[in-house]
Amino acid sequence: MAWDAHAANTAVANVAALYNPATTPYAALLLHAIEEAAPSLSVTVRAATVKDDAEIELVMAGLAREERSGLLVLPDIFTNGHRDSIIALAARYRVPAVYPFRFFVAAGGLMSYGIEISETFRRSTVYVDRILKGAVPADLPVQTPVNFKTVINLRTAKALGFTIPPTLLVAADEVIE
Question: Stretch 117-131: mean pLDDT, rounded?
């Protein structure tokens, strides 16, 4: 199966956003933003709430039965902790998945788009330094991430039988071969 986001007959059209509601209190905000963007990408989005590996497998099996389905893994401590299971089940059920962090792709996931966690920690040290020198935390400016990276795992794409469009490969910040 060739997966090409630009080809109408194989493009992902149904996306499940995977997360655990107990560990993702901000999920409604993320889902709202994703749902607003979905029509411009010709996709529908639905929440896929899970609490354990068995529920993750049910979501994956359901996606495998649908045509043109894909998975978007939301950033949360649960999905981080269950990353190996999520990646393995996405591979078993041949579900194209986009993850929030590079470490998912390094562990065998297909693709990620998100911030570089280590950069966030480095930036936080500036805040710690300023607070230790007497700054009032409430007076410090809020910082938002400025660098978002796309990482693609070509070994995983090949194992799944997916063809990543050359335009996406060129645009990626990192390609794992």
Answer: 85
Quote the CA–CA distance of 4 and 10 in Å, as a whole number. Answer: 6
Q: Is 152:176 a contact under the CB 8 Å cutoff?
A: yes
* pLDDT over 60 at 35, yes or no: yes
Residue listed under structure tokens 């956003």: 17
Q: What is the pLDDT of residue 62?
A: 96
C-alpha span between 53 and 58 (Å, rounded): 9
Does the structure show a pLDDT above 60 at 8? no
Pairing relationship of beta strands 111-115 and 148-153 according to DSSP bridges: antiparallel
Identity at 3, one-letter amino acid code: W
Is residue 100 within 8 Å of residue 150, measured between CB atoms? no
- The alpha helices in 2-52, defined as continuous H runs, are 27-37
Phi, psi at residue 136, to the nearest 5°? Answer: -85, 125
Spatial contact of 44 and 70, defined as CB atoms under 8 Å apart? no
pTM score of the predicted model: 0.84
- Burial class (CB within 10 angstroms; exposed 0-12, middle 13-18, buried 19+) of 142: exposed
Domains observed in the chain: 14-114+148-176 (3.40.50.2300)
